[in-house]
Design goal:
GO molecular function: diaminopimelate decarboxylase activity; pyridoxal phosphate binding
Function: Specifically catalyzes the decarboxylation of meso-diaminopimelate (meso-DAP) to L-lysine.
Bound molecules: pyridoxal-5'-phosphate, lysine
Keywords: Amino-acid biosynthesis, Decarboxylase, Lyase, Lysine biosynthesis, Pyridoxal phosphate
CATH class of the largest domain: Alpha Beta
Subunit structure: Homodimer.
Number of helices: 10
Structural class: alpha/beta
CATH architecture of the largest domain: Alpha-Beta Barrel
Pfam families: Orn_Arg_deC_N, Orn_DAP_Arg_deC
Number of strands: 17
Shape: elongated
Largest sheet: 8 strands, mixed
Order of helices and strands: EHEHEHEHEHEEHEHEHEHEEHEEEEE
Amino acid sequence: MPLQLPADLSTRPTPFYLYDLALLGRTLEAARAAAQAHDIQVHYALKANSNAPILALVQQHGFGADCVSGNEVQRALDSGFAPDHVVFAGVGKSDAEIIRALDADIWCFNVESAPELAVIDELAGARGRRARVALRLNPNVDARTHHYITTGLEANKFGINLADLPQVVELLGRLPHVELVGLHVHIGSQITDLSVFETLAGRVNELQQWFEHRGIPLPHLNVGGGLGVDYQEPDAHLVPDFARYFGIFGRLLQRRPGQQVHVELGRALVAQCGTLVSRVLYVKESQQTRFAILDAGMTELIRPALYQSYHRIENLTSQGSERLYDVVGPICESSDTFGRQVALPETRRGDVVVLRTAGAYGEVMSSHYNLRDQAAAVYVG
Ligand SMILES: Cc1ncc(COP(=O)(O)O)c(C=O)c1O
Ligand SMILES: N[C@@H](CCCC[NH3+])C(=O)O
């Protein structure tokens, strides 16, 4: 399906983020149907993209919200997510953020350490409340993704290491203002080897048995997010294979009667619906390299600079014969490079060049470095 562009593209200033809400709707519908087939609840990870029109559509599809800051909790509530569909994760929740979530009576805190558990207990007690908590465990499963976005290994800062679990459970038994409702794991992002989720399901089954042997029931299992998308050939997989993903947990998790399973997808739901649209400012040729210098840079899309990740680059204006370009932004950093030796049709000043699969962790991670303006968001579909 060709990229849907705004009717006023020729006069619209670049760079801007373009979101295809029709594609988002199809993606959410596919995820909803696959999740429902296995009776799994989806909490959308707001960190991937928290723009109001996107949240509105996610909320309309019946998903909950997975938040990682007090402001995300507030944004979810303001966007119409019911408090009992909101979870709050994060390794460093501040007292003010915990209080805000307690006062909103959100569904659950995903707790990442013993000290955090004690603080939630104390703050809940001071308000005459009992907070529902899930323990985020570090299952030591390798997500086989970029090391910067691997979160489930013992060396990572996230979650409670299994060696510390007995101590944390003992503490839990002594705290009157927290109620354990389940366990939570999240091992990383942009996971494309789905056998990783099979390993994870097996590990969650083992963890569940550990709790059961101690007489501790777990009404909820939250297996986190992480399903990856196709950055190389987005058009081949605009909608991820949700049936396969949910099928793994549906098939392999050893669910107890009445137990609820949750996932927290971010990227897989919103990545393909977003595109960063830019224009070529200059083509600069030296003996060694031909640079296409865009008006979008790492301030709009930092993923290539941060994780050496690739977003497919397309010149929508030119039909010329292909040449190789280093595609770069205008920012004062050498890492402000979107791709090296990229084959593009002959490219000229003013051509419209897009970076695909930018709906997740794109606009939300933008910055004002070099005093850059915030790129606009445009919605079609
Ligand atoms: C705790 C937690 N849940 C969910 C997500 C969403 O992950 P993804 O966008 O890879 O689905 C993240 C981010 O990696 C996370 O840290
Ligand atoms: N922001 C990262 C992923 C980290 C997700 C949050 N734990 C990305 O762009 O790929």
